[in-house]
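Support reply, case 0932

Customer input (verbatim):
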Amino acid sequence: MMENVSVDAVFSVLQETMADDLIAAYQFPGYGGSYFSPIRRAANLLLVVRHNSLIHDLRTLFHQRCDHLSVDDLGIVMTVDDALRRHLHLNPLFARHLAVNGRRISGEPLALTDSAEIHPAEQVAFLAHHALLASAALAPARLPKPELSQALEQLRELATSMSEGRQFAEATVAELFATVQERLQQQIEALSLPQRQAAPVTDAGQTNLEAMYEDGEYLLVVIPPLVDRLLRRLDWDAVLQNAPEHLIALTVSTASQLQLAVQAERPLDYLLGNFQHLWGRDPIAGLRVSSWAVFRQAARKPSELLHGLSADYIRAGDDNAVHRVIHDYQNRLLNMRLEHELLHRTQGIERSSPDKELPRRDEPNDVRIDAISAHLEWWTAFYAEKMAATPASEKMAPQ
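Our regenerated output:
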């Protein structure tokens, strides 16, 4: 396959500079959210090395020797062994994805999480969360083209993966969404949950929206479970027309899907008030979320960014592109500090931060990249330790 040729060709070039510092190399397809770059790639090259400092040599070599290769859809991630192991522990579904769909190119096999260790509810919550994100493709009028393309690709991937590999090349967005919703309904019904989802609505006269939230830049719409034919005919653009202008798109979920996603995938966001209830019933009001899951999401964010930074930095073509990467990741670190301060004020989490401040703007780019990596590593370790020390039974609620 041409994809494998590009990955192998890039790896053969980069391998020259890693010498004995390379532990393993894997190729894996895009998966779920942003593993690891915010820009979705058809293929990813994962390099597990002994020293973070190799990233600067790898970036230089990549731009010197790989410009002639067709690698537009290739993401290149460099990580040290300990950071990757921790990331796989924080994201067992990604570990399973790497084990099932990855291709080992070099080195010893990684110790990947056994899929049997993943609770079925975790899998369904993950799918519900990413179905919510992908549903942004339903009302594209305000959504920027890159985000629309990503949402549509993600929706097609979900429909395919949840339908035993059936292809949906000619399907409409509504058909893709209906397929995903039907499969999610089946999986949720198979779970032994305290509150089971109601039977799907079959009457077009009962398809009223149940609730609306403001979720960042999105209007989050909660619908009852609907049968396939009703899902295909809803006019989401009409719903979005009445939304405030600062909201760039809508996303769609059922109450059960939203509850699962909040509890397993976004408990930190829920605690910090990211779901602003606007109208209708409030199916997540009064939820108490696992403190362990809160710390897990808090650790996942910097861990994801730590690996995404390597992917974006290696691909950055010139100094201006590197400056944009630095600016973007420093803003994300600032958001993390703000979230930590909110956790301190609302949940009593002790206030803490990395010992060293980030370098000034006049410092060399490689120094600034290394410092951002160090801060992301610090925050990941901080929350991973809290997660490990927290009893599974401990709960938190919004204050």
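We compared this against your earlier run and they match. Two observations from our side: Residues 319-347 form the longest helix (29 residues). The first strand starts at residue 22 and ends at 29. Please reopen the case if you see a mismatch on your end.
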